[in-house]
């Protein structure tokens, strides 16, 4: 190290070579040898040393970053970008890195992003017609497949906190065609909004905090919203039971809800509410309880600056335009406006489950809750 600091890379190289004869699995020795050889202009030798480091530690962030840099110096930009990608994935927080490494990491991200866009554009030219064939669902799946294959999008999976039912596809926003009742629900938007506005004559005093964990449990991303009115709910069904004082004020909303295939699970479902997100409030990324049910949003009051992300797809809410999504895929919401945003939310069975499966799923969930003797947590 003293020889390297003095710029005597030839002597440092010889000492490092002798050290590696004694400790050939020492990653730091290999990386220093690579640095010496690079300083001496021996890029082939530097690459050999980096490969030695990766043999000792295949997930070494620094070794991968250096390998990508050496490939880039040799003009192998695409190969460099492919090596940079795992390096970026393994990178520690920038605050823990020295300035030179931070600069190298940011450069690696630029090269990687450029490669992804170049590859995606090439595929668009090569198979553009293929992407446009088939129905809307097929075309969307093909586009997503290409985006995932090129790295343009991140792969999200279903990650339910409690119940995972195998064999159900991972779909962020489901196709409208799978829910023939959706248009009729949307047709009730005016009546449902009118009932909501009547309740809001008392402002949001009837709404309760949606996040309401005991202080004794780990809050993680919910610390800021726990017991906060910034994300409030007027529950119509809570833990599978009608909240009568709210239901009697919303007869047309309850009629619209009755037409939907809601799960019926003791102390769990149905669930339905008006959900209010106050100005300048963000709901952090999270996943829901079970992939056996999906979640319906019907926007009723939506100022500009409000949006919703599920997995890779972000959509703005539009008043009166409903969608159905899988909340066991990471999702988040935000209201960047100066006014409250209110939507109607309820759950429905996943349409790919037959009646026998639905009955058995409900029985299993109820049996678990009875065995534990606990009321289940809120369906976040």
List the helices and strands and how they pair.
Blueprint: H1 2-5, H2 9-22, H3 27-39, H4 43-56, H5 61-73, H6 77-90, H7 99-131, H8 136-150, H9 182-187, H10 189-199, E1 208-209, E2 231-238, E3 241-242, H11 244-247, H12 251-258, E4 272-277, E5 281-286, E6 293-301, E7 306-310, E8 313-316, E9 323-325, E10 331-335, E11 341-349, H13 355-372
Antiparallel strand pairs: 1-2, 2-3, 2-4, 4-11, 5-10, 6-9, 6-11, 7-8, 7-10
Helix pairs in contact: 2-3, 3-4, 4-5, 5-6, 5-7, 6-7, 7-8
Question: Could you characterize the architecture of this molecule?
Answer:
- It contains 13 helices and 11 strands.
- It has 380 residues and is of the alpha+beta class.
- It has 2 domains: 114 residues, Tetratricopeptide repeat domain (Serine Threonine Protein Phosphatase 5, Tetratricopeptide repeat, Alpha Horseshoe); 197 residues, B-lactam Antibiotic, Isopenicillin N Synthase, Chain (Jelly Rolls, Sandwich).
- Strands 1, 2, 3, 4, 6, 9 and 11 form a 7-stranded antiparallel sheet that branches. Strands 5-10-7-8 form a 4-stranded antiparallel sheet, with no helix packed on it.
- A hairpin with a 2-residue loop joins strand 7 and strand 8.
- Helix 5 crosses helix 7 and helix 7 packs antiparallel against helix 8.
- The two termini are 54 Å apart.
Outline:
The chain is α+β, with helices and mostly antiparallel strands and 380 residues long. The protein has helices spanning 2-5, 9-22, 27-39, 43-56, 61-73, 77-90, 99-131, 136-150, 182-187, 189-199, 244-247, 251-258, 355-372, and strands spanning 208-209, 231-238, 241-242, 272-277, 281-286, 293-301, 306-310, 313-316, 323-325, 331-335, 341-349.
């Amino acid at each position: 190290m003293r020889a390297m600091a003095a710029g005597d890379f030839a002597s440092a190289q010889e000492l490092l070579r002798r050290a590696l004869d004694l400790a050939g699995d020492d990653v730091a020795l290999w990386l220093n040898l690579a640095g010496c050889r690079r300083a001496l202009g021996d890029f082939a030798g530097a690459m050999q040393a980096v490969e030695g480091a990766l043999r000792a530690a295949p997930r070494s962030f620094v070794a991968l970053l250096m390998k990508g840099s050496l490939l880039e110096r040799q003009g192998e930009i695409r190969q460099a970008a492919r090596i940079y990608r795992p390096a970026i994935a393994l990178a520690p927080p920038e605050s823990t890195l020295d300035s030179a490494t931070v600069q190298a990491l940011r450069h690696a991200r630029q090269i990687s992003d450029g490669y992804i866009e170049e590859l995606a554009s090439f595929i668009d030219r090569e198979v553009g017609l293929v992407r446009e064939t088939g129905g809307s669902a097929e075309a969307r799946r093909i586009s997503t497949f290409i985006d995932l294959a090129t790295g343009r999008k991140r792969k999200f999976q279903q990650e339910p906190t409690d119940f995972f039912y195998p064999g159900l596809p991972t779909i962020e926003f489901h196709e409208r065609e799978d829910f023939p009742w959706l248009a009729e629900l949307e047709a009730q938007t005016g009546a449902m909004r009118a009932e909501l506005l009547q309740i809001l004559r008392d402002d949001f005093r009837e709404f309760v905090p949606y996040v309401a964990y005991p202080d004794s449990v780990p809050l993680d991303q919910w610390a800021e919203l726990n017991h906060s009115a910034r994300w409030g709910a007027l529950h119509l069904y809570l833990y599978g039971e009608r909240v009568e004082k709210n239901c009697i004020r919303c007869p047309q909303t309850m009629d619209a809800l009755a037409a939907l295939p809601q799960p019926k699970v003791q102390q769990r479902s149905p669930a339905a509410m008006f959900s209010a997100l106050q100005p300048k409030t963000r709901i952090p990324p999270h996943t829901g309880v079970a992939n056996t049910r999906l979640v319906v949003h019907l926007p009723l009051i939506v100022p500009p600056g409000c949006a919703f992300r599920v997995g890779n797809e972000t959509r703005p809410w539009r008043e009166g335009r409903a969608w159905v999504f899988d909340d066991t895929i990471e999702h988040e919401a935000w209201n960047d406006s100066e006014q409250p945003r209110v939507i109607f939310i309820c759950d429905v069975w996943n349409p790919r489950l037959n009646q026998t499966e639905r009955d058995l799923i409900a029985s299993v969930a109820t049996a678990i809750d009875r065995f534990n003797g606990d009321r289940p947590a809120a369906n976040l």
